[in-house]
Amino acid sequence: MTSLTVNNQPVQYRLDPATPLLFALRDASNLTGTKFGCGTGECGACTVDIDGQAVRSCRITLAAVEGTFVTTIEGLSRDRGHPVQQAFLASNLSQCGFCIPGMVMTAAALIRANRDPSDDDIRAAMTNLCRCGVYPRLLEAVRRAARIARGDENIVPPASPDIDAGDAARAVPALAPPATPAPPQS
């Protein structure tokens, strides 16, 4: 059994320790925001934060993450209030959206490590692939996220047009703590 913390919740996976973290997150925890893209670590769609570092979850096993803190896109911010989420939404970065969770996680790790990244820093960190070609807007979105994180810019993220803002922040069932059984009645 592999024990780690996922989105601030202790988790024990009863899976083969050689299982890629990606499949444990998606299949056992129903955290499907982390995407399966290439399976070789090249595309970045599966990027998660492991102890503060952006890591391609398709290339790391459960055994390798024993005892770590893992944050997925679902755990970054339930109300889309993280500076990277705000900037990506305000910059209208997403097109098909498949690569965006991995890009958000990569950008979040970058900004946590470097609060004022240069364009070269951003290009070096953001090696995620996007078949829609959002790259021209990506640099500005990451720069904007850094400004928001530093407090140099404030924006209010819009709710998705097809979802009520209150519903958007609803708890993810897979992340809800286990119910505490009621004490026996005498």
Written description of the protein model:
The structure is a single chain. The protein is of the alpha+beta class. The chain has two domains: 2-76, Beta-grasp domain (Ubiquitin-like (UB roll)), CATH 3.10.20.30; 83-157, DNA polymerase, domain 1. Helix content is 33%, strand content 11%. It is built from seven helices and five strands. Strands 2-1-5-3-4 form a five-stranded mixed β-sheet, sandwiched between helices. Strand 1 and strand 2 form a beta hairpin. Helix 3 packs across helix 4 (100-113). The radius of gyration is 17 Å and the shape is globular. It starts with a strand and ends in an 18-residue tail after the last helix. Keywords: 2Fe-2S, Iron, Iron-sulfur, Metal-binding, Oxidoreductase. Pfam families: Fer2, Fer2_2. Residues 157-186 are annotated as: Disordered. This is (2Fe-2S)-binding protein.
